[in-house]
Amino acid sequence: MAITSRDLRSKEAAxxxxxxxxxxxxxxxxxxxALPTTNAFVYLITLVLALFVANALFSPIxxxxxxxxxxxxxxxxxxxxxxAAVGHDEVNGMPSHFVAMxxxxxxxxxxxxxxxxxxxxxxxxxxxxxxxxxxxPVQLRFEDVNADQRPDMLVSVKxxxxxxxxxxxxxxxxxxxxxxxNKLQASQ
Length: 188
Hints:
Elements: H1 5-15, H2 35-74, E1 78-84, E2 96-103, E3 106-112, E4 121-127, E5 138-143, E6 152-157, E7 160-167, E8 172-175, H3 178-187
Antiparallel strand pairs: 1-2, 2-3, 3-4, 5-6, 6-7, 7-8
């Protein structure tokens, strides 16, 4: 078989590299996909829903934990006790002992003057309204609010504070009256 020039040309064409044409699109004509913005929106919605679910799941757990911590600190019924020198039958330098309780939503304070339980007095405080108020602790502190050199009793329940004046005439605590409250507010 004879080799012709046509055969040689076709072999040379097969050996030559093929050229490819590259078409470039100018920057201003490129299409921008809206996909990344949509994904960010989906992620944001998912994050917000996840936060709502986490709040719904963990709120009861945190609330339960708070009740258990209060159980360990104050017991049931919620009780706090302290001693303070208030000038009520305190012989031999023995301070009076106070026990404040939340008894089924009723604030009750027992005072044992001079630490003597035979002379115990009971101060009945307010009734607490609302759900779960039977688990609200009562706090006591003593401070001279009317500048008579006798410590007065301040009873705190949640964000409210009640003032019991240490009355020198009766040697007992009594609720502050309107005139004393106005003088106290005017002096502050």
